């Protein structure tokens, strides 16, 4: 090869590299220097999933990212809407109420600067007691029982008390992080923990190592009554989820989605969606609940408008999101 040809090839390569670098810089020109995702309390699935996801995004996108402990889905909708957080995790029930202006944190205000990114998993609603409590079914919960419903404003705290009311359970309401409530159950300070989180719930896994617990299922009549009144669907907790289960346990569940502020850069959200949905093995290594963090489950979002960046990834990969569904 002659020296002149080598020079031309080198020049062309350098030119292409410069053009590529300029294109990448241009694509990232409006990216934030860092980002934060709103999760929930420690000891719950949101915090484990959100923290791991933020680290994964940060490592692959070259920007600093982390998770923030919050009150959960209700507060996350508000924080993302106001721009205090760029990203958050939420469930369909609280999301629907927030978009309609029915959030308990901002009554009358439509929290609509929130857009969907990708499906996460279903949140089962389940009841846990100490084995020596004598409680084997929901109907056994005594009048005035102290029930921990999770952090104030969380999905569990928003919906589980209403479910208990519908089933005729009379209780004293307690709030706290899942880890704290697990400790209170062990110490006899509360009688029941009404969990709503992706499985396996870290606090339950920790609790069953330290105490003899029983996970109470909903019977068929209770499932029928609850699904008719609330935005939940029947769900089965597999027996292998916890060592305390000897058989599959019947519950109800609500879908979770990751969300972003609608004004977050399209290219950033596109890349985050791509990394999440094209690398499910990595997501499952973060938390087992991510086995359902797959593109096909996008159909379970019937409430939140899609972010343009996320919608672009879905439409490029054989899934249809109509323009009317994009913010």
List the helices and strands and how they pair.
Layout: H1 3-27, E1 34-38, H2 45-61, E2 64-68, H3 73-82, E3 87-91, H4 92-99, E4 114-130, E5 145-148, H5 155-166, E6 171-174, H6 178-186, E7 192-196, H7 202-210, E8 213-216, H8 220-229, E9 233-237, E10 249-261, H9 266-277, H10 280-286, H11 308-316
Parallel strand pairs: 1-2, 1-3, 5-6, 5-7
Antiparallel strand pairs: 3-10, 4-7, 4-8, 4-10, 9-10
- Shape, per Cα inertia axes: globular
Count of DSSP H/I helices: 11
Catalogue the unreliable spans.
1-26
Assign the CATH class of the largest domain: Alpha Beta
Brief summary of the model shown:
This protein is α/β, with parallel strands linked by helices. 39% of the residues lie in helices and 20% in strands.
Descriptive key words:
327 residues; alpha/beta; D-Maltodextrin-Binding Protein, domain 2; 2 domains; 10-stranded mixed β-sheet
Walk me through this protein's architecture:
Helix 6 runs parallel beside helix 7. The termini are far apart. The chain has two domains: 33-122 and 256-325, D-Maltodextrin-Binding Protein, domain 2 (3-Layer(aba) Sandwich), CATH 3.40.190.10; 123-254, D-Maltodextrin-Binding Protein, domain 2, CATH 3.40.190. It has 327 residues and is α/β, with parallel strands linked by helices. Strands 1, 2, 3, 4, 5, 6, 7, 8, 9 and 10 form a ten-stranded mixed beta sheet that branches. It has eleven helices and ten strands. Helices cover 39% and strands 20% of the residues.
